[in-house]
């Protein structure tokens, strides 16, 4: 329940990291003590040492944070207080009559910058496509929203905060898109405020569906592949989630103090969960790492797993608003339509030929085309 007494109206926001903080980051990177490494080190061991050294060198010596600031500050940004915590957003208006409000929700270890190749084409299409007014918030506890400072910021509470944010921006009804953590919040928003949501668009990771059905024999090749991906993830790729869900404070000490540790923690995921044919660039990885570093939110973002982990273990009530899903072959687990139909009213499903867990960075054209087609069919 949102506490109106702790709320505050929208205030203009500008990203501006002091020169002293940039200098301190570079000093920490250059002075970092790195671990030993095996001669046959592989991704099965975790972040590759050679890859980490290369990223560290780029972050310390050539990465242009001021260009990131300029990119973000080219758009209207707001900071407000909702239910006692800061909520930041980019407010990218189309200026076209009849533009469809669109809420874009990032995941972990992502940020608002992940949508940088998406909001331009969606708000200013070159042809007769649907135009959008895009709202791109930093989820509570993530990035420029700053750290949350109390318990209870699960997907439901974040969803309620997003509903308030959209009202403050003048959008009573809207389309919402989410991936990763953003898909959990977008789904909760659609369940809790269905009268507000025109349609729900997801790059729906299939981890939950595969987990719910794992005891069943696969009925087709899509299910067989999903089970294989799920087993591999559980065996070799899920330790980060277990740590963040059970001991977020412990890992926060290391990641808040060491930029190299933070970089290794999130860069591994950007590399592992992306389509090898469309890797996330070093600049995009360093953009995300910089945002978590300068805002001090790696700990509070990890706490989301602690708040929501129990909810991920079981399906929630079915979503009744129209739903579109993009299924990417290199996601952690590629979703299976018949499993998803138990929880969502799916009116558009796209099995895409390429792409992974970060479609706005890897294959933004697929995401743009899918959102446009979905909105055109609904409005």
From TrEMBL:
Keyword line: Aromatic hydrocarbons catabolism, Hydrolase
Lineage per the UniProt record: Bacteria, Bacillati, Actinomycetota, Actinomycetes, Pseudonocardiales
Gene Ontology molecular function: hydrolase activity
Pfam families: EHN
Endoplasmic reticulum among keywords: no
Ranges in coiled-coil conformation: none
Gene3D superfamilies per the UniProt record, alphabetical: alpha/beta hydrolase
UniProt keyword Transmembrane helix present: no
Family (UniProt): Belongs to the peptidase S33 family.
Source organism superkingdom: Bacteria
InterPro entries membership: AB_hydrolase_fold (IPR029058), Epox_hydrolase-like (IPR000639), Epoxide_hydro_N (IPR010497), Epoxide_hydrolase (IPR016292)
Domain Epoxide hydrolase N-terminal: 11-115
Protein name per the record: Epoxide hydrolase
